[in-house]
Amino acid sequence: MKSAIALGSILALAACAPQAREPNPGFLVDPVADGALFVAGKFGNTLAKVDLESGQQTLLVESCANPHELATSPDDRYVALACYGGQTVDIFRTEDLVRTRSIDLGENARPHGIVWHANGDLYATAEGRQSVFWIRDPLGAAETFEYGTGKEGSHMIAVAPSGNHAWTTDLGSKTVTLVDLKTRRAPRSVEVGEEPEGIALSPDGETLWVSARGSDKAFALDPMTLEVRQQIATGAFPLRIAVRPQGDFAVTSDLADGGLTVIDTATGESVRSIRVAGPGGAQERMQVTILWSPDGERIYVAETRDNTIAEVDFASGEVLRRLPGTGGGDGIAIIE
Q1: Whole-model pTM above 0.70?
Q2: Which of 260, 257, 261 is nearest to 284 (CA)?
Q3: 280, 277, 276, 279: which is closest to 298 by C-alpha?
Q4: What SS3 state is found at 172?
Q5: Given its phi and psi angles, is residue 195 left (phi above 0), alpha (psi -120 to 50 degrees) or beta?
Q6: N or C: which end of the chain has fewer CB within 10 A?
Q7: CA 304 to CA 329: how far, in whole Å?
Q8: For 16-34, how does the pLDDT look when each residue is reduced to its tens digit (9 = 90+)?
Q9: Which residues belong to CATH 2.130.10.10 in the chain?
Q10: Which InterPro entries does UniProt cross-reference here (predicted)?
């Protein structure tokens, strides 16, 4: 509970954070999509592109109200943005950040978590509607199918490799919910700790990983029965959890102490901690989203209040550099 109190102070400060500068048309337009990080500026209502070779921001455009999570298309040509302050999922070209379409999910949708699946379809939570959306053929017909979770704060989402099932973390209800996307069976939910928020599915689809920020724990669940197999102590206030592409480790983003907890997925044990913020830096930086590089060698950590993205070498735990995170960078996506 102490971590929840600490977060209240952090969020109060974040609400007063300065707005981002207006998009600057003088930024260099990079015609090459390779090696880029995309950053949603939730305070500045912006979307930025950062070149990973130079570490420089090359594009910055206006996006939508309070943008949060991002997802890139399987061919890396597009990035989809969940417009948490509105009701749309907006799609931009990765080459030049031109918005190509806006998909309306209905009144009070407040989309937050988003996955662009290998099958080409988009999946997103609609927190305001207590539901999950399946957007089929988002670059074409963009058919939308809505599935109610019946839970408060359906926030983050994971999707099975088959595309048959989705899972949400429901902050307000303290639950994890399984949604059957193909048969439309009634969703099933279980309580998992206090304020479960982070969620990730192992690459083989056999383990569902959840971080509960109010419990300072990560949980390993059976994806289909939702039985909790293991509980692992983490750092303070683990907002997010991400599984390495190789499947051997999971990492939590521990906002209140500015670090990462590394979990061996085979044993379910915490094996080390990585300090990102440095002494006294946790509240200043407001560490939120984490993202693995496709090769699993680096972790990108959004330091929202500091307008930076820390690039961390996984093997050594060293912070290699800090990239621009303009406008309160929160949601991040990558192509290499």
Answers
A1: yes
A2: 257
A3: 276
A4: coil
A5: left
A6: N
A7: 5
A8: 333 333 333 333 333 334 6
A9: 1-27+193-336, 63-191
A10: Haem_d1_sf, Host-pathogen_enzymatic-act, WD40/YVTN_repeat-like_dom_sf
- Express each pLDDT in 259-275 by its tens digit: 999 999 999 999 999 99
- Whether 219 contacts 212, CB under 8 Å: yes
Identify whether the C-beta of residue 252 lies closer than 8 Å to the C-beta of residue 260: yes
Element (H, E) at 238: strand 238-243
Distance CA 149, CA 113 (A): 14
Which CATH number is correct for 63-191, 2.130.10.10, 2.60.450.10, 3.30.43.10, 3.40.630.10?
2.130.10.10
Distances (CA, A) of 140 to 41, 91, 101: 27, 12, 10
Buried b / exposed e along 107-134 (16+ C-beta atoms within 10 A): eebbbbbbbbbeeebbbbbbbbbbbbbb
Closest CA to 80 of 137, 149, 153, 19: 137
Q: Which two tokens stand for residue 83?
A: 């417009």
Displacement of CA 151 from its chain's centroid (Å)? 20
81: amino acid identity, one letter: L
Between CA 133 and CA 145 the distance in angstroms is: 6
Query: What is the dotted CATH code of the domain comprising 1-27+193-336?
Result: 2.130.10.10
Rounded to the nearest 5 degrees, what angle is found at the Cα of 305, between the Cα atoms of 301 and 307? 65
Contacts by 17-23, CB closer than 8 A, 24 or more apart: 17/43, 17/305, 17/328, 18/43, 19/43, 19/44, 19/327, 20/44, 20/45, 20/46, 20/307, 20/326, 20/327, 20/328, 21/326, 23/60, 23/61, 23/62
Question: What is the C-alpha to C-alpha distance for residues 109 and 84, in angstroms, rounded to an integer?
Answer: 8
Closest residue by Cα to residue 176 from 129, 227, 234: 227
| The token pair that represents 16 in the structure block | 């007063």
In the chain, the amino acid numbered 218 is: A
